[in-house]
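Chain A, query sequence.
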Amino acid sequence: MFQQTPGKFQTTTRSWRKHPGFRLSLVAGVLASLVLAMAPAQAQMRMPQIRLTGGGPTVTATYTASTPGYRWARGVTPRYQWYRGAASGNTSTFRAIPRANNRRYTLKTADHGHRVRVAIRAVRSGKTLGRGLSPSSNRILHEVTAPKLSGIGLVGNTITGKLGVWSTEWRTSVYWRRGAARIPGATSLRYRTRPADAGRSVSLVGLGQYRFPNGVHAIDRRVTHKRVRWAQRLILNASSSRGKLFVTMNSYARRASQVRGNGKVFLYDGSRVLKSFWLNGRRVMTFHGLPKGRHNLKLSFPTNNFFAGAKATRSVIVR
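Chain A, predicted structure.
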C-alpha cells in the first residue's frame, strides 16, 4: 500500500513531524529507550568468578567464597547465601541453608552426603546490581578422625585401634610407629608392644583416601599416641634388731627380670615420709632411733617415662 502511494505517505509523515504533539512523544520515546538501555547495565554488572577455597568436602571443614584477583567496586557490598543440594549435583535440588549468610561456611553433619555452593549478590544503595554462583562442591564425606586406642600401655600388652565411621566410605589403611619411625610389619589394628617400645610413644596412623568422579583425590591422616612403659615388680622387706630397722628394696620389670626399675621412690612410715631417694634395682637401708612398736611401711614408686607406678607394703615391730 505504501509503495502504491509514496507521495501521500511522505507528505503525511512530514505533516506528523510538524505537529507539536508528535515532537513531544518522539522525545519521550527516545528518553524511554535510553533508560531501558541503561537499566540492564546497572542491574547486571559483570560478576567475578566465584570459587570455594580453604576447605575440603568433609564435615567440619570450612569453605570460603573467594573471588581471586577481583576487587569490588566502590560502594558495592557482596551478600552471601549458601545452598545445599543432592549428591548428584542436580541444580534443581539446591535449597538455601538457613542462617548461612557469611563469606565462610563450616560444613555440618546435615551436609554429609550432599553438595554445597554459594551465591553472591552485589548490592549498592540497597539495589542488587548483579548475581553470581559458584560451582558446587564435591559430595561431602565424613570427617577423618583420629583412631581410638584401647589397652594398657605396658610392654607385652596388646593395644587395639578402632577407626571412626569415616572408614565406611574412605579407602583406609593403618600402620604403627615408634616415635616417628614406622614399625616394620605393623599394619593392622592390633599391636603387641615390645621391649623396644619401653619409654617410647607408639602411635597408630589412620590414612584415608577418596577419589571423586571428577578426578579430585582427597587424602587425610590422623594419629593417636600411647606411651609404653615397663610394668614392674616392687619388693619391700623389713626386719629389726636392738632398735634398728633394716629395709631391703628391689624393683625390676615384670617381663624382663634383668631390667632394673629406675626412678625416684618414697618410703613411708604410716603417713610420714621416712625417706625419699633414687632406686635403681636393689637397695638396703638401715634406720636408727625409731620408736618401739609396730611400723607400717609403704614403698611408693611413682610412674615415670619408663616404668609404671607400683607400691609395696610391709609391717614390722621395732623392739
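The radius of gyration is 41 Å. The helical segments are 6-18, 20-43.
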